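User: I'm curious whether this sequence folds into something compact or stays loose and floppy. Could you predict its structure so I can see for myself?
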Amino acid sequence: MYLETIYLLKRTKGTVRSVDVVEELGYAKSSVSRGVNLLQKRGYIEISHLTGDIEFTEKGLAKAASVYERHSVLTSALMKLGAPRELAESDACRMEHVISPEMFDIIKKFADK
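Assistant: Here's the prediction. I'll summarize afterward.
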């Protein structure tokens, strides 16, 4: 969720700091701090010591774009099946983490029709 949120915020705002993630998700600062630190330890992001700006590593950008694509495609497919947007968004958020790459490709072909 953090990677996707940072990805979307960077697309709209350009620069992102942890406080932006807190505001966007409505989570406690301590929760976001833990999540962001975990992303940094895993090599997905770097945080400027001077400004606090969050930047993706190459690996992190690829992962965030992949998560966003999964979410978008799954939301689209669920809406095509008749789900209202809010339900489709909510369920896509859960599904994107457990669906196999093979099933995702099948759903992606369906959503693109």
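Summary: The CA atoms of residues 17 and 49 lie 11 Å apart. The chain has a mean pLDDT of 94.
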